[in-house]
Amino acid sequence: MSDHKRIDMQVPVFGAGIWHFGQYVDRYATDGYGPPVNTLEAINLAGKVEDLSVVDLTYPFDPVGLSVADVTGVLKMNGLRAVAVTPQIYTRRFSRGAFTNPDADARRAAIELVSRSAEAARELGCDYVKLWPGQDGWDYPFQADHRQLWKFSVDAVRELAETFPDLRFAIEYKPREPRNAMVFSSVARTLLAIEEMGVPNVGILLDFGHSLYGGESPADAARLAISRNRLFAIDVNDNYRGWDDDMVVGSMHPIETFEFFYALVEAGWQGVWQLDQFPFREDSVQAATDGIRVMKRIHRAVCALDRQALQAAQRSQDALAAQRIIQNALYGPYEG
């Protein structure tokens, strides 16, 4: 097949957040959907998923006191690698904020927790430390001085990046939840903050679902981050666009999911295709298996896409021609 027909036949590395295999809680089922699952048990579940190679681990590990050596042993036993560590700076302890908490001691505690996470990530050989400061923001007008929240956030991440220059930090932005408004709420705001930090080892983790319900085009957001060499990682899932539902990838927006992955492959981005799904009522191993199978199908479609024809349609901004081309790749030729 000619070059314009295939972009890259290399199969991506597939990963998942370890929380995919955990216990889920909401305000209606406060005792959880299913039994508690500790870190080692979750890793064992992840090891049952075909084609899953890496996991993002939350820190501190569960139970508290579980060593990096213990985690490493179970990862190896399951043929897995830790791609990232995510410090839990979004829990009840930081309900008034992590980096933006009005209490200076709480802000320092958040930085110290991330520092311990970074040390664990270094020992595990991770690609990055993920920062999701979900409690950093505000709920009401006039609640906070926006200039102060911005400065707290920028200064904290800059300090961490400078303290660990050998590690990469990926900020996962999100429009809202648990706060009604978050400091790192969009790709543009996060890139602006990173520019202000002035450090080379801070980038973005682009969550497809966050981008969707934040009113962005995930493909456009990815290209914007890639253009500044700041797309460090991705999480994929799907939703109804009104909330962060974290459904199985491709279940709601297959065309936009296809466009997102096309943007990554076309740009030569080489990161992990990572699941961030919340199977509240579904079997977690099956949900991960299904999500990876969807991504593999999308990858095959991206590689089969008539790139030359698509680029011609895009140059003329011919929407219908572009749709026919991508539908042929994704669903097969129309036969009448």
Condensed summary:
This protein has 336 residues and is an alpha/beta fold. It has helices at 39-46, 68-77, 104-124, 146-163, 187-197, 208-213, 218-227, 254-266, 284-304, 307-315, 319-331, and strands spanning 14-17, 52-59, 81-87, 128-131, 137-138, 169-172, 181-182, 202-207, 231-235, 273-275.
Count of separate structural domains = 1
Helix content: 40-55%
**What is the helix/strand order?**
EHEHEHEEHEEHEHHEHEHHH
Indicate the CATH topology: TIM Barrel
Rg calc = 20 Å
Strand order of the largest sheet: 9-8-6-4-3-2-1-10
Number of strands: 10
Kindly report the name of the CATH homologous superfamily: Divalent-metal-dependent TIM barrel enzymes
Distance separating the two termini: 25 Å
pLDDT < 50 runs, ≥5 residues:
1-5
The chain-level structural class is: alpha/beta
Shape, per Cα inertia axes: globular
Residue-averaged pLDDT: 96
Q: In percent terms, what proportion of residues is strand?
A: 5-15%
CATH architecture, by name, is: Alpha-Beta Barrel
Largest sheet: 8 strands, parallel
